[in-house]
Design a protein that fits this description.
Helix content is about 75%, strand content about 0%. With about 240 residues, the protein is mainly α.
């Protein structure tokens, strides 16, 4: 029952977050903007959009640099909003979903897309946002949380996107996706529990509460972003062959 409640909470929250303004990143616009700013030629930019940044000759170091810059930027923004959520009259939530949780995962969803596109992934939000889309993003979040099973899942997702070894990849994901998501949700469930405790502290001691929210977010966000960047850099989409 507890797991079912967490799962429902997770999907419901993600649906809310995906519908928020700016949650979807336009892959072409994003790549054009960041690669042009970093001095890539028009031809390189077009090739990166058509194929992948790696195949377009964008160096690994530059990809890493842009990725770290994206992580830093979202980490700072998420931290500032998180600290505000811990102050009196902080952000309002949506329904029973805490505001700090919504804003934290909004930044995570946006960052996942940016890091994925820099590392050669196709559009992750093509078509309507359904449970499959949310499951894919949940898998990425699992990698951010350091779950080995999620890393395997994301690696196999590349095979589905490239259509190679499709049957094998599908077979693994179909049989294990529920288990992986359950594992991620269990980890997130613990996190939700902790946040509820922090929220109580935040109400009792508002200013200190704001600081606690900010520090926790700053540390957590940076680690999560780095975990994903590192994993994506090793996958087939991020290499030139």
């Amino acid at each position: 029952f507890m797991k079912e409640t967490m799962t429902d909470f997770w999907y419901r929250t993600m649906e809310v977050i995906f519908k928020l303004p700016g949650a979807k990143i336009d892959r072409e616009k994003f790549l054009r903007e960041v690669l042009t700013k970093c001095g890539a030629t028009q031809e390189q930019v077009n090739n990166a959009i058509e194929t992948t940044p790696a195949k377009a000759g964008i160096s690994k170091l530059l990809i890493e640099d842009i990725s770290n810059s994206c992580i830093r930027s979202h980490k700072i923004k998420a931290t500032l909003t998180s600290a505000a959520a811990g102050l009196p009259g902080g952000l309002a939530g949506i329904g029973a979903i805490p505001a700090d949780f919504i804003q934290f995962y909004w930044h995570i969803i946006v960052l996942i897309q940016k890091l994925a596109y820099l590392h050669g992934w196709p559009d992750l939000m093509a078509g309507e946002i359904d449970r499959d889309t949310i499951s894919r993003f949940t898998m990425f979040i699992g990698v951010m949380l350091g779950l080995g099973s999620a890393k395997k899942g994301v690696a196999l997702m590349t095979e589905i996107y490239t259509k190679s070894a499709l049957t094998t990849a599908k077979k693994f994901l179909d049989s294990s996706i529920a288990k992986i998501i359950e594992q991620i949700l269990l980890r997130l469930g613990i996190k939700i529990g902790r946040e509820k405790i922090s929220k109580t502290i935040g109400i009792a001691i508002p200013v200190i509460g704001g600081a606690i929210f900010g520090i926790t977010t700053y540390n957590t966000f940076g680690t999560m972003g780095e975990n994903l960047r590192e994993h994506l850099s090793k996958l087939p989409f991020a290499v030139t062959y």
